Automatic annotation (TrEMBL):
Gene behind the chain: metC
Pfam families (UniProt xref): Cys_Met_Meta_PP
Keywords assigned by UniProt, alphabetized: Pyridoxal phosphate
PANTHER family: CYSTATHIONINE GAMMA-LYASE (PTHR11808:SF15), TRANS-SULFURATION ENZYME FAMILY MEMBER (PTHR11808)
Family membership noted in the UniProt record: Belongs to the trans-sulfuration enzymes family.
Protein name, per record: Cystathionine beta-lyase
Length: 383
């Protein structure tokens, strides 16, 4: 088998045309002619299957070492299709630090359909075991939490899940298959917001699900086709293209992130840096064992008394914006932006203070990013 970077480019051969095109065409046709009434060709209608989307789905399945991939119109549509395999009365354990939109989908949508959820700290394996009930069917989490980058062990959770006949579901948006392949570590379903690193250019909203087994693939396919949140062929092409440069982009994200961590740790204005690459924590030990790198997101607390709003608004190069995982560096204040839906007590419980800053490190020159952070810190330090 070829190595990972080769797989990024060549996992699927492009052989469905007579032109010699090296890339799969964007098939815009919504419908496909039947050779005869009795036998349809592979394709019949584009919600049910589209050659461009299919290419992307196979591409991601190969990278995650899964049985089948499925592409959706957003990360949320992908998560919806996964949670919709369960039935009323089923109970699912969810990490207490998952993406805010996932909490909204759970609390304001799926609970109305009698799915039961318990939030649990997935770093606390005792607590996970204790929360399992007779009707529990799955454990759902993100390996690196947002925004504090707490690390959950896929191996440990998958072991507990297997002991109790539960599915392990991992949202792998922050790491991507370049840095972690949860199915290899025992997970059953992997989800991506492909809007982030897989797309990588802040120009497409998309979601992916990869299953470990054919049986799970049948259930996800039923929901993809039946609920209908499919990715368009144009957007499938953008994600396909983004994935081809995933390795080179992630290498730069990683090296920039580690330089920025080193810089932040040298500054008096910073009270604490959150990054799983920092040695000496249990998070680092898990990440070292189960990932091939510590990601491109760095969070940090400004020292009490320093004005976090002034700091993020005073940057020139780094953009003040939500989202993450793209070529440009983005900074934000979780308490006011990505995590504003949490009440203040919930924020504090999650460690999200007004001093907390989340930085999605982009692909610019590290020296320029550090110079921008430095002038921003100098400004707030002087105030
Ligand atoms: C952004 C994000 C989502 C939601 O994806 P969309 O593409 O915005 O619908 C889900 N999980 C994580 C971890 C995310 O960062």
């Amino acid at each position: 088998m070829t190595k990972f970077n080769t797989k990024l480019i060549h996992s699927q051969s492009q052989h469905d045309n007579q032109t010699g095109a090296v890339n799969v065409p964007i098939y815009t046709s919504t419908t496909y002619a039947f050779p005869s009434v009795a036998d349809k060709s592979t394709w019949d209608y584009s919600r049910s299957g589209n050659p461009t989307r299919d290419y992307l789905e196979n591409q991601v399945a190969a990278l995650e070492n899964g049985a089948h991939g499925f592409a959706f119109s957003s990360g949320m549509a992908a998560i919806h299709a996964v949670l919709a395999i369960f039935k009323p009365g089923d109970h699912i354990l969810v990490s207490d630090t998952i993406y805010g939109g996932t909490f909204r989908l759970i609390n304001d949508f799926f609970k109305r359909w009698q799915l039961e959820f318990t939030e649990v700290d997935t770093q606390d394996l005792q607590a996970v075991r204790a929360a399992i009930r007779p009707n529990t069917k799955a454990i759902y989490f993100e390996t690196f939490s947002n925004p504090l980058l707490k690390v959950t062990s896929v191996k440990a959770i998958a072991k507990i899940a297997h002991d109790h006949d539960l599915l392990t579901i991992v949202d792998n948006t922050f790491l991507t298959p370049y840095l972690q392949r949860p199915l290899d570590l025992g997970a059953d379903l992997v989800i991506h917001s492909a809007t982030k690193y897989l797309g990588g250019h802040s120009d497409v909203i998309a979601g992916i699900v990869v299953t470990k087994t054919d049986a799970l693939a049948e259930q996800i396919y039923f929901n993809q086709n039946g609920i209908g949140g499919v990715l368009s062929p144009e957007d499938a092409n953008l994600v396909r293209r983004g994935i081809q440069t995933l390795g080179v982009r992630l290498d730069r994200h990683l090296s920039n992130a580690s330089k920025i961590v080193e810089f932040l740790e040298s500054r008096d204005e910073i009270a604490k840096v959150y990054y799983p690459g920092i040695v000496g924590t249990p998070d680092h030990e898990i990440a070292k064992d189960e990932t091939d790198g510590y990601g491109g997101i760095v969070s940090f607390d400004l020292r009490p008394g320093l004005d976090s709003t002034k700091f993020v608004e005073g940057l020139h190069l780094i953009l003040l914006a939500e989202s993450l995982g793209a070529v440009e560096s983005l900074i934000e204040l979780p308490y006011k932006m990505t995590h504003a839906e949490l009440s203040e007590p919930e924020q504090l419980k999650a460690g999200i203070t007004h001093q907390l800053v989340r930085l999605s490190v982009g692909l610019e020159d590290a020296d320029d990013l550090i110079a921008d952070l430095k002038q921003g810190l100098d400004q707030v330090a002087q105030a």
